[in-house]
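Suppose you are handed only these lines of text.
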Amino acid sequence: MEAGAPPDPPPVPPEDVLGWHNLRYVIHRGDRRRERTILSGTSGIARPGRLLGVLGPSGSGKTSLMTVLAGKLRPAADGRRKGRGRRHATDGLVGDVTFGGEPFHEGPHPASERVPLSYIEQEPRFFSNLTVRETLTLDANLHGGDASDVDDVVRRLGLAACADTLVGGDTGGKEVRGISGGERRRLAIACETLSLRCSRGAASENAVSEKKADTIGGAGKRKAGGVILADEPTTGLDAHAADKIVEKLADTAREERCCVVAVLHQPRSAIFQKLDDLLLLASGGRVAYCGPAAEALTYFEKTDPRHRCPTHHNPAEFLVDLVAINCDAGSEVEAADSARVDAICAAWASTGASAAHAAVPEVRSNGGDSPGGDSPGAVRVSNAPGPLGQFALLAGRAWRQTRREAWVRVTQLAASAALAAAFGACNFKVGYGPKSVKRRAAVLMQSCINTSMLAICRSLNGFPRERATVSREMRRKRGGYTAGPYFFSKLLVETPVDMIFPVVFGATVGPMVGLRREGRGWFLATLALQTAASSTLGTSVGALSPSAEMALAIGPCVMVLCIMLGDETGAFAEVPDALAPLANASLIKWGFRGCLCSEFEGLKFDPLGDDRATKTAAKTAAKTAKAAIVARAKKKMDGPCPRTGEDVLEDMGLPLRGGAARAAKAQCVVVLANAALTYLVLRFRGA
Ligand SMILES: Nc1ncnc2c1ncn2[C@@H]1O[C@H](COP(=O)(O)OP(=O)(O)O)[C@@H](O)[C@H]1O
Ligand SMILES: [Mg+2]
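From them, the structure of the protein bound to adenosine-5'-diphosphate can be written out as follows.
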């Protein structure tokens, strides 16, 4: 190779290459004068079967590039940023990302719809109470794969030793200790490998069975490779674990014949040796080099003899230093560094390889006019389960997750029983005297509020914990699932378990307080339904809120509002007539009503009967031996006593007969309304 000449790229069929051409990404902050260029004409290619390492100083645009390649940030015709998370209205991204000459993300049938694309997050999240094997098995089943696929990736990714260990994390009720950080990242690679493999297997099955393999926009005539993107998969790991991750990425690239692009942070020499290709970025996403990693040092040395890597020096560190600008050592050093980096980038820009990367390949139409009437996007995952199958798989996961947290539930159960005992002790055997009316109502309302608050807090805390994992899984183009199977499986498994707590609470409080025995069934049913209604309300708030913190801030406020609107006794607030219709949406209204009706319907009072408070007051008075005080105390406490519970219900404007059953029906409607709202949010906004 002549001095400064670009390295010769290895020959590859152009249709398997992932390319990005002249990407420009500019952020405008407020006004146009304060714009910031994140990527300035970044071009490069990733070849199948090869691992491309992206190196560069911090802030050079590596993550931004990966975001664009993943399609999370897309060039728009008007130069505006599309998609979710629009923060700056004038953010502009232009340029092309292609796979095999076809637009990768743009158009009605982008190549990414048929070419498996995986993004490995820096901190991959999984369900904490599933083992490594169970996690992979579920993924394989969702993709239509089987146990042999799982065994294969477990072996290849070196996960056999931890296959039956819990993954760990905090998606459940508490942080679970599980596999190490390195194993977790290898598990993420295993999941993506499975996805690639199962999608491809299914695609080729389809192609064979439909005899259209060579007609689908060029998709079926070759074994589709796929793309794996990983942003800093080694960060935070020890050297050995980092080495293993890069080795597995390189193996995956070779074995799956896919393009693997990985941003690496401070890789050690051994890791650098494992890279097939290297993309070196300078500030502003300027390309300093893109080609075979093994030829990078020679290229720089030939471009400028001063850019020779000293012997025994880590080449990765040398290369990053070469394109880094030191802003802390004074303006002279900074200017010299800038000049050097400018020269390096200009040298690369003048090479033929740079021009070849920047040129957009002749883009094939992806407008859905493929011969055979099928489109590239039409490749289906043949064995992948439908919504019912997904529901069954996800219900199995939810059940495992819940079962393995049994002791958390036992703690919650014990807390419910203890709270009930405290409630019962404070209101022990209220009797049937005049005072008991007020005290019964108070106990019932407190039970209802307590049940609702505990349930909403549990669900507000629970859903956000698994949200990131679910969101990643739902976004998958293949092997993902829709909102329905996820949400209804969660509802089916978790709600009945949650309903046990209020039943224990009510079953303890009832006898201690001396609530009407005949109304106990409806009382417990009302509390159980109240839990279901509050849990679904909590999940709705969680799904609507952008973050867990916001959900936790909003949820209790919504509940307090429900209490104010739903309090028909006027103990907490008098609801103005104008707001009365709104009260029907308050789950507290129906909970209160159900509890009150279940207790007072058919209850008989004893106007001469003593309750505990009266007795205590009388005793105290008697001790002072002043009959007048006794009389005054009794008079003060007694007051007009209703004869029956129906009198009380009538006073409160509640139905005299069948009120508890009607309230239960209304509670069911509240549960369904909240469930429908959550489903719609998850369906249209995603998790
Ligand atoms: N949406 C954004 N808003 C503001 N600045 C951004 C945004 N995206 C990226 N940047 C800035 O662009 C530069 C490159 O970011 P990034 O791609 O994350 O760098 P790297 O991953 O190489 O460290 C950083 O200085 C970052 O602050
Ligand atoms: Mg980054």
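What can we learn from it? The mean pLDDT is 82. Residues 111 and 369 are 14 Å apart (CA to CA).
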